[in-house]
Design goal:
Helix content: under 10%
Distance between the termini: 25 Å
Number of helices: 4
Largest sheet: 22 strands, antiparallel, barrel
Radius of gyration: 27 Å
């Protein structure tokens, strides 16, 4: 997007709209606040416009006003607005989303793996999590749909969906400008606006944002190790450097014809995220390797000296932390037309593409023990046609959907060795480099319909179904190189032809080279009843089904685990839900409750370990399989109360009991010689059930978010004070479901507060905002690959203790924002 053109267009809009009245939605919200009643929220959770309290399913939505009052700056802040929800940036990245809802999510953002919570910009599905941790810019509202959404939203919404709804611009001219400054050098700027070019026919709008802050940590010197030139000391870690832009052209003609064209762009140049080593295995000590079963004599070796660091965002590093980036751009068009007084048409088309690179230091040392240099790109084209019908007895929507997408990537994993004291391992100092590459080409087709039938005055039948087919083609390649030359830090290659000379001078072997093809068909029904006791009290019972598409493991080692060529099957969830929605006390109290039972079958689990394969090979054994059955059951409460017009209380409480009923691991992939790595695997046993020793990821038993706000109406404007508290109990935040690992996070609470002044004419707003005011350290993600390196029999694991790394959420931040709106 040409920035000079963007700012020129803004200047024209600003010149044409000076003195315009404040936006109507702000006036409406202010009127509701002054009357003491709660503001009615309109959503499109069922692909049609309706009041939030009339939707017979669990939906949380926040309006543009609530977004501003609660200092919601990214979709990560939705953690405070929906129960049983966990959103954070993924490990070692800034804009890749990691989201879990009711105990189900995507643990690994590697290309080829599918998300479990769908992210939508308006009605356009983002197929990949890269670039989906969206900053909030010129939006109408944000919606969180809990539970399987397979009927209306299709594949990969097995846990729910997040909808990012941009502001419609076909209204009065308006411009909003804001500037934010805070600690860690934060400096954010937002500019958004729109204006009619031809009244009632042509509108243009533009939104630009720049979001930046310095690192929460930095690259620091490791004792006794010369800092590699590829990673200068003092480079900031966990910083933010993101630029976003969105252009909107809306055309209207006739009585109801409307075409909305949007182009948007995000560029993330943030540095790598700093992680914290969670063990003291690397303490400069001498340890002994003993492999008598394989005829290898015992010998001592020395570990690096990498003392744990006090700041969880600081890191020892040998990789270029300032060369990470991700760029995504896209275009969409939405055409709507009323065909009759009861029948309307919507057509949606979109194209998105993205690419990036990332350097991950899995050892978080400067010793070049376990580095991964990765490259990624994706592309998606989608189209959808939809018909909606409404009369007194029936409300229905149906349509067809098609998407052609691909995601491709490659990385080289460079594994070093610990320094022997007396002799090299196997007679030579062998270094391992592993090249992994591949693509997932997917063609998705769907036909769906959903309807509400009025059975009697107060009772409705809700029924729908979706047929979906995914055709997936996946070329997968993996080659292992072993030699006396180690790949230099930051030197990366993405194909065998680019492999540097010398890294395979002892041995190199293609372990995986195949193209898999599979088709996955799913039918996802939804059926329920909703009964309206009064116009303000409604109860519902609901069954809904969702699925995550199957696929092929890009890391699958086809030599040790040939069955990886067969791919893995879709996950399926069958959700049973009972809920009550109510607005009481003259529209001053909202109280919604629900209970759910969600058996989740064919859970896709990634089993991964670096192992010693006799007589002299260290390799990555990885295998993604449908491990078994996970049960998710719980209850949720959402409430807002305005006892007096100036005072508001709000709370979201979630209880979740998530556990594995079956967790089946095949024994053959962990069988190395005569030694097994998995409890219960003995000769002749093909699989073992580890359900009693595994715990689902990101599934705390309790989540609580509450706030209270008070508004003073003064002669010179209004003053709003808001304090909130978020709490969640113990949860696993790493990559493995093995009980009690180093990356587990105990329960913690966060305190947030905001103070805002708004001028009488609503044009000016000045706020002071603080998050995590108690400066609590809390882990949101992590890596762990088993026990310490070169451990004693029977494990022989190479990279376990190297990679026990935790990534924390932001520390205490505070900022001031000035906003001008006209």
């Amino acid at each position: 997007m040409n920035r000079s053109f963007c700012f020129t267009l803004f200047g024209l809009m600003a010149a044409g709209t000076a003195g315009a009245a404040a936006a109507q939605d702000t006036a409406t919200a202010a009127g509701a606040a002054e009357s003491g009643s709660l503001q009615e929220i309109v959503v499109t959770a069922r692909r049609r416009t309706e009041a939030l309290q009339d939707v017979p399913m669990t939906v949380n939505a926040i309006t543009a006003e609530a977004i501003q009052d609660g200092n919601v700056t990214t979709v990560e802040d939705l953690n405070s607005y929906a129960p049983n929800l966990k959103i954070s940036q993924d490990r070692a990245t800034s804009s890749t989303i990691n989201v879990y809802l009711r105990g189900v999510g995507q643990n690994d953002p590697l290309w080829g793996f599918q998300p479990a919570v769908g992210v939508y910009i308006d009605d356009v599905y983002l197929a990949r999590p890269q670039g989906a941790l969206l900053d909030v810019l010129d939006v109408s509202r944000l919606e969180v749909l809990s539970g399987p959404q397979g009927t209306l939203y299709g594949k990969n919404t097995i846990a729910g969906a997040i909808k990012y709804v941009t502001r419609d611009i076909d209204g009065p001219a308006t411009v909003t400008l804001s500037a934010t400054g805070g600690n860690y050098g934060e400096h954010d700027f937002k500019i958004s606006g729109s204006t009619p070019v031809i009244d009632d026919h042509l509108y243009v709008g533009l939104a630009l944002g720049s979001f930046q802050h310095n690192g929460y940590g930095e690259v620091v010197a490791q004792p006794g190790v010369a800092q590699p030139a590829s990673s200068p000391l003092g480079v900031g870690l966990s910083n933010k450097d993101i630029q976003v832009g969105r252009a909107n052209v809306t055309i209207k003609w006739g009585e109801s014809s409307k075409l909305k064209l949007i182009a948007d762009d995000i560029l993330d140049n943030s540095n790598a995220s700093g992680g914290q080593r969670l063990n003291d295995y690397f303490n400069g000590s001498t340890q002994t390797l003993n492999l008598p079963a394989f005829g290898v004599p015992a010998f001592p070796f020395v570990t690096p000296n990498a003392p744990p660091l006090g700041n969880p965002f600081d890191m020892y590093d040998n990789l270029p932390a300032n060369r990470d980036f991700f760029h995504r751009q896209g275009y969409s068009g939405t055409y709507t037309q009323d065909l009759t007084s009861q029948l309307s048409l919507k057509v949606i088309g979109a194209y998105y593409e993205g690419h990036g690179q990332q350097f991950i230091n899995f050892s978080e040392t400067a010793s070049n023990l376990f580095d991964v240099d990765g490259f990624y790109h994706d592309q998606q084209t989608s189209g959808e046609g939809q018909l909606s019908f409404t009369n007194e007895e029936v409300k229905a929507v149906g349509g067809v959907f098609y998407m052609n997408s691909h995601s491709c990537g490659a990385y080289d994993a460079d594994v070093g060795t610990l320094a022997p004291v007396t002799q090299p391992l196997f007679g030579f100092p062998e270094y391992i480099t592993e090249l992994v590459g591949g693509c997932t080409f997917t063609k998705s087709s769907a036909v769906y319909g959903d309807s509400t039938w009025k059975l009697i005055d107060n009772l409705n039948l809700d029924v729908g179904a979706r047929w979906n087919e995914d055709k997936i083609t996946a070329p997968v390649f993996q080659e292992d190189y072993g030699g006396t030359t180690q790949l230099a830090p930051g030197v990366a290659f993405a194909s065998p032809a680019q492999a540097p000379a010398g890294i395979g001078n002892i041995s190199n072997a293609v372990v995986t080279d195949y193209t898999g093809e599979r088709s996955f068909v799913s039918v996802d029904p939804r059926v329920g009843l909703d009964y309206h006791f009064t116009k303000d009290v409604m109860a519902y019972v609901l069954y809904s089904r969702g699925f995550v598409s199957g696929g092929f493991d890009m890391r699958g080692n086809a030599t040790l685990t040939p069955s990886t060529k067969n791919g893995y099957a879709p996950e399926v969830a069958n959700n049973y839900e009972l809920g009550l929605k109510s607005t009481m006390l003259d529209d001053t109290l909202l109280l919604n409750v629900d209970v759910f039972y969600d058996p989740y079958t064919n859970a896709q689990e990634e089993l991964q370990e670096f192992v010693f394969v006799p007589p002299a090979t260290i390799t990555n054994v990885t295998y993604t399989t449908n491990a078994g059955k996970q049960i998710n059951k719980g209850a949720e409460l959402q409430t807002v109360w305005k006892p007096i017009p100036a005072l508001t209380f709000g709370a979201n409480i979630g209880y979740l009991d998530s556990y594995f009923e079956d967790y089946i691991e095949p024994c053959n992939i962990f069988l190395v010689g005569l030694t097994t790595l998995t409890p219960g695997c003995t000769p002749g046993v093909k699989s073992t059930n580890l359900a009693n020793t595994q715990t689902p990821l990101n599934a705390p038993h309790w989540t609580l978010s509450e706030y209270q706000s008070y508004t003073w109406n003064l002669s010179y404007g209004t003053l709003l004070a808001r304090v909130g508290f978020d709490y969640r109990t113990y949860a696993k935040t790493g990559t493995t479901v093995t009980a009690f690992t180093a990356t587990d996070q105990p329960g913690y609470g966060l305190i947030n507060a905001d103070l805002a002044y708004t001028s009488p004419d609503k044009h000016w707003r000045v706020s002071i905002d603080g998050k995590n005011l108690a400066n609590r350290y809390y882990r949101v993600a992590g890596y762990e690959f088993g026990p310490p390196p070169l451990a004693a029999p029977p494990t022989y694991s190479f990279a376990g203790g190297v990679s026990e790394i935790g990534f924390d959420g932001p520390p205490r931040t505070y900022s001031g924002t000035v906003t001008y709106h006209f």
